[in-house]
Amino acid sequence: MWPLLTFLAAALLLGVHLWWKRKHALMLADYRSRTDELQNLRQERVKESSQKQAQQEALLNSMVEGVLVLDAAGRIQLANPSLEKLLNISKNVHDQTILEAFRIQELSELAKRLPEEKIVRGFELELPGMEEQWVEVNAAAVLDRSGTLHGSILVFRDLTRIKQLENTRQEFVANVSHELRTPLSLIKGFVETLLEGAKDDPELNTRFLKTIEKHTDRLTYLIEDLLTISRLESGQVLMNFHPVNLREEAQRVYDDLASRAQEKNVTLCNDLPEAMTARADSDRLQQVFFNLVENALKYGRSEGHVWVGARENEKGKIEVWVRDDGPGIPEDSKERIFERFYRVDRARSRDTGGTGLGLSIVKHIVQAHGGEVWVKSEIGEGSTFFLTLPQAEE
Ligand code: ADP
Question: How many A from CA of 359 to the centre of ligand 1?
């Protein structure tokens, strides 16, 4: 009996032991799988948060606008690459105040106002420096639901180009009004003098009417030139490119201006090679030749010469020149004569019916052909205007 009981007890113990071991193993496996799961979850979270951070960084780095993040104490926590470029930051500005980092009083004051004003839109600021530079700042305080301040964000947009365009537009309007007003007030003056009695004097009558005619012509040229320039600048002029024989185009312009040349005893020389063809818009190219040859006649000397010629330059482009043996152009005016309304001698330009737009039109047309225009001149030695054009077969 005892041996049987002992055997049963031993078997029971063994069974309990095996059951316990198995349960323990199961518990261990369960625990392991849970910790694995937890670890995976943690790893995923870390991955997600670093992905988010990378996305945020990429977003800030790719933004055209400059971004500046400040903490609640007004110290810089982040400045994105666009801002570094805009404000020309080369040093590490982390944890500095705006005043320490950029030395811009107005910006520092704007940041100080933020906690109270919460949001500031469209704040325009001229940056200190040699070159004119403008920015627009939009800024907001960062507050949590309870209204506690955590910092602020300032977004900067470069306004320089817009400001420059605005200045150019204002200057243009002022110039145009001035150019229109001058002949108009002259015309009015002569009409008044005629009405006051000069009309009864046949000699004065004719002289004054001729002057009035001259100034009305000037107004017409001015309006025509203004329209041309405005169309060229807005890209409304569609160029009709064709192979164009340069010598023939220049000759047409010479024929149109022959009587003007005769009045001043100027010899017009066409040195353009017979078979040189450019890819150009014939009408526009004639306008270029007309403006340059007309200037050579207007500003050149009496009994002088005008030459047109061309060669193929090192870059395979056609280089055309219009040369005169007139008084030349002063060094400091060479660049500026291509600007709208710039004249070396205002009175002389007006006397000859000039609008101050001729060379600006030339520049626009040549640029629309993919070319360049420049001038070489020595005082007393004459002036040579150069322009490049593509060859017909390009
Ligand atoms: P404008 O209507 O006054 O002639 P342009 O734009 O054609 O206007 O020329 C600008 C200025 O450049 C002229 O007013 C003149 O002072 C100068 N200029 C142009 N061509 C010549 C030239 N061939 N010789 C000397 N000065 C010139």
Answer: 7
Residue 390: predicted pLDDT: 97
This prediction has a pTM of 0.67
pLDDT digits (tens, 9 = 90+) for 76-121: 999 999 999 998 888 899 999 999 999 999 999 999 999 999 999 9
Atom of ligand 1 nearest to the CA of 343: 14
Average pLDDT over residues 211-233: 90
Which residue segment(s) compose the domain that 85 sits in? Answer: 61-158
Q: 261-275: per-residue pLDDT in tens?
A: 999 999 999 999 999
Dihedral sign, Cα of residue 106, residue 112, residue 117, residue 121: positive
Pairwise CA distance, residues 75 & 38, whole Å: 38
Domain boundary at 135, 158, 181, which? 158
On whether both 137 and 148 belong to a single domain, the answer is yes
The atom number, within ligand 1, closest to the CA of 355 reads 2
Tell me whether residue 11 is in a domain: no
Residue at a domain's end among 216, 237, 258: 237
pLDDT at position 394: 59
Does residue 208 lie within any of the structural domains? yes
Instruction: Please give the tally of structural domains in the chain.
Output: 3
Distance CA 210, CA 204 (A): 10
* Angle at the Cα of 253 from the Cα atoms of 248 and 255, rounded to 5 degrees: 90
What atom in ligand 1 is closest to the CA of residue 322? 23
Cα of 341 vs centre of ligand 1, distance in Å, is 10
Name the closest-CA residue to atom 2, ligand 1: 354
Q: Average of pLDDT values for 355-375?
A: 95
- Residue 306 near residue 293, CB atoms below 8 Å: yes
Same domain, 256 and 384: yes
